[in-house]
């Protein structure tokens, strides 16, 4: 079987991108993660809404962000400016999920080609693509996470400046766009923590997987040399 260094680089990038988009997708797709915040953040007491009204408002907003045609927020009022922000969010959510699906498809195709014996990624400096994906992505996001913990408010503003350049429609008026009352900053902070935790665990698993395979390769090579 032929080995390819360019294929190793591409594979590492695809693995890293799959893990990143998968981590971002977790709080988006796991609605119970939001539901679990309703009690601890005292959203019913602070808004005067029932738990069902809060869930309905959140679900309708999220349905739109995931591709629904009509924008609504249950019994909560919303403005055209607020809707335009969620339209922007909708684009980012769909981009993330589409990239995740493409990455998983490409990884499946690469695994199929490797099993057919046509070509496989080469080892780079003695390590496979999984190691470099985990080590590279882990180093970047541990640094980002450490900086964000120093000043989450500032990180929150920088995030919006990067992903919604030139726009201020993410600065909601709680009276006009009441959805923001059930989306406190603590929830977004916990989303960031969840994403970072998934990335750390995923990166550690990738590195451990490659190190384990590396030892297996060395043992096999050592046995072959004895014959």
Q: Would you mind describing this structure in some detail?
A:
The radius of gyration is 22 Å and the shape is elongated. It has one domain. Strands 1-2 form a two-stranded parallel sheet. It has 227 residues and is mostly helical. The chain is built from eight helices and two strands; from the N terminus they run βαααααβααα. The chain has helices at 5-29, 31-38, 43-47, 51-65, 80-115, 129-150, 152-163, 185-226; strands at residues 2-4, 119-121. The protein is 73% helix and 3% strand. It starts with a strand and ends with a helix.
Key descriptive features of the protein:
227 residues, mainly alpha, two-stranded parallel ribbon, 2 strands, 3% strand, elongated, disordered C terminus
Q: Give the SSE string.
A: EHHHHHEHHH
Distance between the termini: 21 Å
> What does the average pLDDT come to?
90
Morphology = elongated
Spatial arrangement of strands, main beta sheet: 1-2
Briefly note the structural class of the backbone: mainly alpha
What is the radius of gyration?
A: 22 Å
Percent helix range: over 70%
Largest sheet report: 2 strands, parallel
What proportion strand? under 5%
Using DSSP, what is the number of strands?
Answer: 2
Domain count: the total is: 1
Sequence stretches where pLDDT stays below 50 over 5 or more residues:
218-227
Number of helices: 8
């Amino acid at each position: 079987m032929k080995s390819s260094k360019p294929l190793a680089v591409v594979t590492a990038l695809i693995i890293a991108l799959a893990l990143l988009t998968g981590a971002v997708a977790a709080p988006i797709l796991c609605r119970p993660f939001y539901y679990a915040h309703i009690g601890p953040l005292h959203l019913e007491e602070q808004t005067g809404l029932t738990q069902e009204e809060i869930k309905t408002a959140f679900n309708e907003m999220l349905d739109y962000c995931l591709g629904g045609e009509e924008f609504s927020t249950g019994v909560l009022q919303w403005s055209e400016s607020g809707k335009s922000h969620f339209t922007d969010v909708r684009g980012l959510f769909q981009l993330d999920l589409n990239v995740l699906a493409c990455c998983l498809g490409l990884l499946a195709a690469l695994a199929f080609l490797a099993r057919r014996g046509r070509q496989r990624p080469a080892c780079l400096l003695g390590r496979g693509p999984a190691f470099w994906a985990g080590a590279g992505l882990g180093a970047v996001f541990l640094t980002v996470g450490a900086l964000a913990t120093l000043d989450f408010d500032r990180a929150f503003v920088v995030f919006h400046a990067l992903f919604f350049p030139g726009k201020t429609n993410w600065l909601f008026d709680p009276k006009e766009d009441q959805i923001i009352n059930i989306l406190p900053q603590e929830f977004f902070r916990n989303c960031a923590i969840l994403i970072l935790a998934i990335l750390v665990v995923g990166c550690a698993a990738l590195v451990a997987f490659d190190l384990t395979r590396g030892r297996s390769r060395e043992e096999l090579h050592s046995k072959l040399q004895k014959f």
